[in-house]
Amino acid sequence: MRMTAPALATFTAAALLAGGAFAADQTLTGSVAYKDRSALPPNAVLEVALVDVSRMDAPAVTLSSRRWAVQGQVPLAYSLTYDDALIDERMTYAVQATIGVDGRTLYRNTVMTPALTRGAGSEVDIMVDRVAQGMAADSGAVSGGELAGSAWVVTDFGGPILVAEKKPEIAFGEDGRIAGFTGCNRLMGGYEAADGKISFTQGGMTMMACPEPYGEMEMKFNEQLAAVARYTLNGDTLVLGDENGRAVMRLVRKP
């Protein structure tokens, strides 16, 4: 059947649009592994996600994710399709991975694993760490308890109130990860919190040169964060303390 000129033009435009949509689909590949020698059970499930970690004051935004039934043992190969139209070369992206069984997370990556921009490519290998099962929630995520899904601004490091225009921030994700801001640089990592006890696993951090007073503030923030072992939550106030209960950082809930 021969098409009329208007019909042919409409068909051609639709084909071009469809072709453009398909052309925007790209693939991220790599492997997921861990260091211990434990064997994965036959019903293990691997989940990999591409996330936007550009915002310093909020949890990562998922752009694409996929789940697989695990076949064999680590390293586990993965292939994740994403829409290239969502990628901005000015932004920062990372890949997250979890391995779980029956809704319970066994392994996850706590170190930021960059992808696609800022020198990172589309072939990304991910190293995951074993989750402390005493901290695991029934949903499979590491339990952040009452902190999960909240964001906070640092008011002081256990002493005088900070007067800088930009203050450090911490956002606790519901997936056991944190997104932090030192006042100058952005950091990512993991956390485990339960029964007033908390620990952090710091992953990657951007390396911008920091003018004063932000350079000194960043150094203090990282130093205090490394000492945190306990927390006390009272409404919109969060106090992070060391092993002896001494307050090392006070924060207020971010609106």
UniProtKB/TrEMBL annotation:
Residues 146-251 form the DUF306 domain. Gene3D superfamilies: 2.40.128.270. Keywords: Signal. Residues 1-23 form the signal peptide. This is Heat-inducible protein.
